[in-house]
Each structure stands twice: as structure tokens, then as C-alpha cells.
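Marked as duplicate of an earlier ticket. Keeping the data here for the record.
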Amino acid sequence: MNPKYQPLFELFSLRSDIQLKNRVIMAPMTNFSSNPDGTVTDAEVAYYARRSKGVSMVITACTYVTPNGKGFAGEFAADSDEMIPSLRRLATAIKEQGAKAVLQIFHGGRMCPPDLVPGGEVVSASAVPAEQEGSPVPRALTDQEIEEIIHAFGETTRRAIEAGYDGVEIHGANGYLLQQFFSPHSNRRDDRWGGSLEKRLTFPLRIVDEVKKVVAEHARQPFVVGYRFSPEEPETPGITMADTLVLVDALAKKELDYLHVSLMDFWSEPRRGVEDTRPRIEIIQERVGNQVPVMGVGSIHTADEALKAIETGIPLLALGRELIMEPDWVEKVEQGRESEIRTTLTKDDQERLVVPDPLWQAIMNTPGWFPVVERR
């Protein structure tokens, strides 16, 4: 290994006493490849196993905690104990390759397609549709339903423990239900779950507390709890960088293992809310990095780009699309073969890269999402 890349390979101990063998994590990415009944497929398991050897930790694609939280076709389920064998199969495949396995737990809220949820009824904090054309108007959840969803996040955490995962990541990013409660765009409530900024924080913080309670009750060995969030929204009203600093202050007090900042570009700058032109990730690191480890992600392809990111002081780095294009990214850097890292795809790469058909079709049919040399 080139000695300059050594910072990427330093050990890191999380608060839960889980030790990571390096600083590189596989980011959670939807793959659309599970069975219709919510169980994982052979192709999905093989895809994860192929990418679990070099990274220190794999965060799975999101899994839904209730039937009305399913956000994608081909998403795998964790909403009942019947799913524990399926969940265990995926955890085992990841861990056999030497990585820690973290299950990302999720409810899609108003972003769920009506044809994927019971009765076609989409729910959210309030009856406010997303701004994308054709978005359904959701029904506002009742107080009792909100409590039931909080309990469901806890139950899914218990299933993750029983299935052998090393942790869970609470998905509070990308416009899904936890973010919908925090956002002034999607949360227009005037009860204990909305109104002021502090009340909009109630639902996500209650989920954190429930997950941590279940871990304390059921985990017999160290178990990771992380939280992923998106720092801003384009909508008006919407989450601003100033709002996010209030969120991270609150999360930093919860003794989490990490905060995962969901970004398309690691170096992206604030839109509004702060008089600061530094990258969002640096602002967040300065704000809470001494209280909770911050994980960064977004458009990091090469070893040099990863090194530049880690030199900001961010201790953990998640790679997403890079590990689809180059499953051996970590091994190649470790072996001094970083010049061999592939940063493009061709239409003939699917079998070599062990990518399931539904994900491959999404890659080939989404211009700009992946650097593809030749599309179908």
C-alpha cells in the first residue's frame, strides 16, 4: 500500500465497542431486487457478498418496518418475525466476508407508491403531497398510528438483533417519513408532533429512543445504532442548514455510534440558513464531531478523493456507486493497485460485477446516475 493512503486503513472504535478494521463503509443503496414477498433473493445476497470483503462495514438497502412503509418495488421486508430467516441470510453473507452488517430501517411515508402499500393508502405527517408531479396526497397519521410506527422501528431492531446484524441505521434522510416529520414542508401539524421546530423533532427522536431501548433490552453483544439525515431540502418551506444544526445538536446527545450525512456530493455547500460557505459536512463536523462520529458520502471515486475527504477530519467514509463499479475498491488501494480502480461501466459488465437484473436495468436506464461508457 502507498503509505499516503494509510489514514483510510486505521482502526476505528465506535461507541458501542464495535471495532472497524478501516474507515471505508459500503453506503446503503436501493437495489430493487428482493422477492415480491419481501424476502431477499439469491442475486441480492451474491451482490452484497461480492462487496463485503474489503470494507469494514456494510449498510444494507433500506428495509420497511410496516407494510405501509414500503417505498420501492423489490424492497426487502423486516415488518414481521417471518422475515427473520431472510434477514439472517443477508447478515450472514455480509459477515462471512469480514464486514460488519448494519440493517437500514425505514418508512417511506408520502414517498411510497400507492400500489405498494395496503389499500393504496399513503400516509405522512400531514396531508401534503411531495412536489414531484403526480405525487399522491397522503393521509395524516393519527396519534395512535404514530406511536405504532415508533414501536415498529423497535420491533424491527429486535429482529435485526435476532438475525445476527451488528447494528441498525435509522433512515431519517432522503425525504422519507422521519424527514417528513422534521420538515416544515411536509409537517403542518399543530399537536405534539408538529408546529414548532422542537415539536417537529419529536418523532425522529422518539424513534432513536425506542431503538436504543430495544438494543439495551435485547442485544447480548455490542450493537451499532446510527442515524442518516439529509441536511437541506429544496422546497419552501423546507429544512434549512440552520434547522439541521438543531437536529444534529439533538442527535449528538443521544449517544449514537455515528451520524451519516446523506449527500450526492461530499463537498456540497449550504443553500440557505447559515452565513457559511464551507461544505456542509465540515460545518456538521465542527458542530458535533467531538460528540459523535460523522460519516460522509457523495461522489468520491478515487483513492485520492477519499484521502482528501478523510483529511477534513471526518472519521468515516461511505462509498456507494463506486462499490458497484469497483467491488474490489478497498482491496486495490490496500494492495497498491489504486490505478486499476474502475470509474466507468460498460453494458457488458453486469455478470463480472455480480449486479442483479433490476438494479442493472436501473443503472442502464438512468442517464447521469452512473458513468456508463456505452448504454443499451
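See parent ticket for discussion. The chain has one domain: 3-343.
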